[in-house]
Amino acid sequence: MKSNDEKQKLPYVERDISWMYFNQRILLEAANPEVPLLERLTFLGIYSNNLDEFFRVRVATLNRIIEYDDKNIRKEQEIASQTLKQIGKLHNRYYQQFEETFAKIMEELKQENIFVIKETEMTPKQQEFITSFYRSKLNGSTNPVLLNNSRPLDDQNDENIYLATRLIRKDTEGKIREKDYAVIELPTGDFGRFIQLPDVDGKTYLMFLDDVIRYCLPLIFVGMKYTDYEAYTFKFTKDAEMEIDSDLRTGVLQKISKGVKSRKKGEPIRFVYDQQMPKDLLKKLITRLNIDKNDTRVAGGRYHNFKDLMKFPDCNRKNLKYPVWPPIFKPELNGAESLLTLIRHKDRSLHYPFHSFDSFIRILREAAISKEVKSIKIALYRLAKDSKVVKALICAAKNGKKVTVVIELLARFDEASNIYWSKRMQDAGIHVIFGVEGLKIHSKLVHIASRHGDIACISTGNFHEGNARMYTDYTIMTAHRQIVKEVNEVFNFIEKPYTPVKFRELLVSPNDMRKRVIALINKEIKNKKQGKDAYILAKVNHITDRTLIEKLYEASTAGIQIDLLVRGNCSLVTGIPGVSENIHINGIIDRYLEHSRIFIFSNGGEEKYYIGSADWMPRNLDNRIEVLVPVYNKEIQADLKQIIYYDLQDTVKGHIVDGSGENLPWKDIYPTLSEKQVDETKISLFRSQEELYKEYKKNTE
Fold first, then answer.
1. 3-state class of 442 per DSSP?
2. How far, in Å, CA of 647 to CA of 653, rounded?
3. Which of 113, 190, 340, 569 sits between 20 and 30 A of 598, alpha carbons compared?
4. For residue 695, is pLDDT > 80?
């Protein structure tokens, strides 16, 4: 048994550093020449969007910890300060990689006859087109804010991108007589970030909206008698003022949460600007934005806010995108028979986006109109903009069903959408529950009560049509009496959180999930010592919980093989003799975002399978309502194991996650690999998402 001091010395990567490592894996995919060219731009956009959210929430939290004046949290402040410095170093390094990757992709686009031109590179005809575009469409959407007064720019939206302009009036002798400064918010919401010009000789021409407005500055400031115009792109990221994440010990969490009120609302914490910006203009912006010494400043290139690259025009070049993989309809769920009846006969499953989400929608629609269905309960975390799920629930309510919806109003950055749909559902007569104070509801559950037998659906991901096209998630539909009963008890617990309840089948947090997961690992350790089969297979988004990591180290030390698939944060360090040499982690970045959570324990040869909503993080285990469900159906178990094995074999899109931050792709470790298996390594080139799609498609033929 290790002492507390020894446990503290066990290798651990701070959560926010591990996140930076994860986001770089996305950047590496953007730099991968084997990825279709326009998809590489999408990965750059994802990288940039992720980084914005990271600064809004995680870096904001670190800043609050550092700034809060309380000697009792000095230890946390030291860790936060060190983490912030390391984030700054990684950010600068990755930013250079980003700029180099972006420049390289721009050059490769030219080879495909796609040209992204600047305002100085236009032909006379293109100039006429842009001038006409300004007068007919853009005019009135550009509203400069002068910087000549001292009013702070604290009401600007950090979702947007801005031009800082320097306006000069010279006399006939060329001497500067007047100098003004202004900020222009780019109207990307109305026009997008990229303006497509007329094709010429089979060549496609695009311009950043930034450059369109640069060219149009004399039209914007017409009548002001300026002689010279300069414009430089900048962006900033604000403190999102979300509740501090629960990785901190409770006392610290309470102290810092109180300190949030003393921090200025929406204060910028990252400022990214064109390094060519003149010093006088830069000084004006820093003052007006209230940027201080703790905030991140990045002197970058000409363009920022690269999340817009996710909407880069496809230019009618399907050959530069991934080939289409149409979602597959499972034959047994695509016939004329009632899906509710089929589920009562046997457990069913769907693996998105390989399988169509429409099959799940069909279950809700059938429940909405079936005379045998009495009630529907569902937990919703994020909702699609035009949610078919909600429409089915409203239909059920109008048909006299008792519909209960648990909706999480604090789903980060989706609060407004969730509030909108909540009102729509309440107006339709749906009983809407806004969760439990202090506990974010992250579980993905459905309970359908019927005269012929109740059923339940348990998922690893949100019931969200958009996510189901982009995220790999797994849904199980079952009529198993005890599981269905306990799913209903979870809803009862949410409605009456102080009612004592004990779960036998489900693992529920914050009830007992942590304790039972540790018990499962302890059982593997015990079995190994007794000479029985012992191994752990798991697929999660994040692993940062110290207690679970220590338990996995203990299992590895006992000789248990632990194979993990971790997409995002991973605080665990592999390959350390005597600690983690039996732990192997693969991190996959591919066309779909890996999101499912699957757990398989050897259990002495009688394997135990679980899927659900929870990652191995303190917030999931202690501060959210999460659910893992056991899987008993042998066919579904085989499918889950196939998913795990395929992912572990992925050498094309997999990266070695070992705590070093090197993110080495497996295929780069074996430079001699070809499509044929290499005897020396016993590893072949294998892309799990592609092979899974082929396998599922074959099963429909």
1. coil
2. 9
3. 340
4. yes
Report how far residue 678's alpha carbon sits from residue 77's, in angstroms, rounded to the nearest whole number.
Answer: 50
Question: Any residues with CB less than 8 A from the CB of 404 and at least 6 apart, and which?
Answer: 375, 376, 377, 378, 430, 431, 432, 433, 491
Sign of CA dihedral 462, 463, 464, 467: positive
Q: Where are the domains of the chain?
A: 15-96, 118-240+260-313, 331-495, 507-699
Handedness of CA 58, 62, 65, 71 (dihedral sign): positive
How far apart CA 544 and CA 19 sit, in angstroms, is 10
Q: What's the mean pLDDT when you consider all of the chain?
A: 89
Sequence ranges of the binding site for ATP = 50, 471, 567, 595
Whole-number Å distance between alpha carbons of 305 and 150: 26
Q: What's the rounded mean pLDDT across residues 244-270?
A: 48
Say which CATH architecture domain 118-240+260-313 belongs to: 2-Layer Sandwich (3.30)
- Residue 676's pLDDT is what? 41
CATH class (in words) of the domain with range 15-96 = mainly alpha
Residue reference for tokens 């529920």? 508
- Structure-token pair, residue 180: 């003004």
281-330 pLDDT tens trace: 999 888 888 887 767 788 888 998 899 999 999 999 999 999 999 999 99
Q: Residues annotated as binding site for Mg(2+)? A: 382, 412
- For residue 421, what pLDDT is reported? 81
Residue 266 identity (one-letter amino acid): G
Report the alpha-carbon distance of residue 631 to residue 476 in Å, rounded.
8
Q: Find the DSSP H helices in 112-167.
A: 124-133
Q: Which CATH fold would you assign to the domain 331-495?
A: Endonuclease; Chain A (3.30.870)
Q: 510's torsion region: left (phi>0), alpha (psi -120 to 50) or beta?
A: alpha
Q: Is the dihedral of CA 386, 388, 393, 395 positive or negative?
A: positive
Output the six-digit token pair for 68: 């809060």
- Rounded Cα–Cα distance for residues 357 and 380 (Å): 15
Q: Give burial (CB, 10 Å; 0-12/13-18/19+) of 298.
A: middle
- CATH topology match: 15-96 vs 507-699: no
Note whether 687 and 653 are within 8 A (CB).
yes
Q: How many CB atoms lie within 10 A of CB 287?
A: 13
Closest CA to 21 of 661, 664, 572: 661
Decide which of 62 and 530 is more confident. 530
Q: Are 539 and 565 in contact (CB under 8 A)?
A: yes
290 in Cβ contact with 265 (< 8 Å): no
The residues that are catalytic are: 442
DSSP string, 491-540: HHHHHSTTS----SSSEEETTTHHHHHHHHHHHHHHHHHTT---EEEEEE
Spatial separation of the C-alpha atoms in residues 641 and 565, rounded to whole Å:
12
Q: Residue 508 half-sphere exposure, CB side, CA atoms within 13 Å?
A: 24
Q: What is the pTM of this model?
A: 0.90
Q: What is the mean pLDDT of residues 167-173?
A: 90
* Residue 471 · residue 352 · CB < 8 Å: yes
